[in-house]
Amino acid sequence: MTTEPSPALDPATPPAHPRLSLALGMFVAVVAFGLLVFGLSFRAGLDQASARGASDLALASDRLTTGLQRYRELAVFLSDHPTVWARALSPDQSADVARATTNVLQNLADKTGAHSLMLVARDGTVLAAAGEQTLPKGAQAAFNRAMSGALGVAHFVDTDQQRRYVFAAPVFDPGGPARAAVIVNVNIGLLEWGWPTEPSAIYFTDDYGVVFVSNRSELVLRGGLAGPMPVTARRQISGHDLWMHEAGPYIPSPALHITRPLPVIGLEAELLMDLKPVIALSSLQAGMAAALALVFATFWFFARERRRTLAEANTRLEARVATRTQALEIANRDLTREVTERLEAEARLKRVQADLVQAGKLSALGEMSAGISHELNQPLMAIRSFAENAQAFLERDNAAKAAENLGRISELARRMGRIIKNLRAFARQESETITNVELTAVVEAALEMTMGKVARAGVTLDWTPGEPVWVRGGEVRLQQVVMNLLSNAVDAMSDSPDKRIEIRIFAGQEGGTPTRLTVADTGPGIAEPDKIFDPFYTTKEVGASEGMGLGLSISYGLIQSFGGRIRGANRAKDGQSPKGAISGAIFTIELIPARIDRTQETSE
């Protein structure tokens, strides 16, 4: 009888600690690989975030610079104004001249939104003013520079803790020095009020590090030489400045810090972009890479161990082939089953990935179909109406009228194709050609498309076509906007006793006031005016055929693509309406007037 050596005493069996060391080394390698992937992904994310942040900061800087530039030009314009110039050179003139100067300043202050306008003599005497009647102390530096013959600029905080930005333009004596200065005082808070909401914290600091302008109210007037942020940690990664701070719950931390000097207005623009999405994405990518590496490492480790075990078994099988054959076959079957299971797992993983890709495609297709169905519904209804009319005319043997209706159907089909093209261009941010469009004809075409719905709803239409009014835009896209406003107005007045739609066109001037188109109804008004242009926001009942909330959002984008704007508001019962004191909603479209050659217009 032969005895087999104990496995614990078999010299061919290696001790357990090399295996543990190998497993520990593999784990360390997987962790290091995950950290490497995290670092590379984080740096790539920082580059993308920096590009987006720089673009956002440039837009905010241009917005502030442009807003202040308007008041700078106002100061220069007033310094050359004949009435202001006469008052500055002859301060002892009659009270009529003083009143005329004050009226000029007050008129321009009302139109431009300036906090105050004043004409100040060289000795500091206020010769005329609109708003404040005395020169603020913070504006003295700008006034002194204007008296030296240059354009003075200053910013300060007044006694009411209001931030002011001042421009001082000198008024020169012909052939001599400056005799007075025009002071334009701007309330920075009014400029901030009209800014769009930004996800990042944007602020503008002066030479002392004090935040003078910001889209975060908690940062305003904070800081000093040490800066407005209580920075707890600061790090440079790939040339990017990363901050950790305790500035408040609404200021992103950790954040990417980006700066942009603005020497024109004497401020420095700064932006703090939230890095949590970048960190989360990098962590996800690193985790996935580490998990994949761990799977391969584990597979390799177990395969290596199995090969070693098989080698040991083969060495012992030379003497015990008969007794070990069955065990070896079992081990081979287990190995085959494990390999099969792993292959099946890989196949399932590929199927899941393919399903995820297909789900993303279906989601995008669903959004596109929703927008197209909403925008094409009204032309389809018109086609249906014309088709029914054509059938009726054919039954009456009125072929001419039937042909006319069929022609209109053909035209509507072509318009639907153009609408689809416009929707595709809007969705892909494509640029469409902007031409001169006759606004009255656009309204007439939109009314023709919606007149059936207006008549069925019992709505009275208050509209009188006038002289042609030409604007810059796209004919089909403008028709879309007007049709959407008319349809919304009809739907809003479903429960109103007095159903009336008023359409007005107010012609503008080229290079001056914009052309305005207003559509007003007598419905209940707008419950949330600030949200009416948000996508998928609707006040219609759930399940309504046209209640997806995309129409006004698309209209907003179309009008902006023409360089115009659209806004909605409620009509107060003030009695100013031509039909009496009524309530309801009013939508106003402002468009750029077009330059039209009158000879060509006559020939056309």
From TrEMBL:
Pfam families: HATPase_c, HisKA. Residues 371-595 form the Histidine kinase domain. InterPro entries: HATPase_C_sf, HATPase_dom, His_kinase_dom, HisK_dim/P_dom, HisK_dim/P_sf, Sig_transdc_His_kin-like_C, Sig_transdc_His_kinase_DctB. GO terms for cellular component: plasma membrane. The lineage of its organism: Bacteria, Pseudomonadati, Pseudomonadota, Alphaproteobacteria, Rhodobacterales. It is a multi-pass membrane protein. The keyword Membrane applies. This is C4-dicarboxylate transport sensor protein DctB. It catalyses: ATP + protein L-histidine = ADP + protein N-phospho-L-histidine. Keywords: ATP-binding, Cell inner membrane, Cell membrane, Kinase, Membrane, Nucleotide-binding, Phosphoprotein, Transferase, Transmembrane, Transmembrane helix, Two-component regulatory system. GO terms for molecular function: ATP binding; phosphorelay sensor kinase activity.
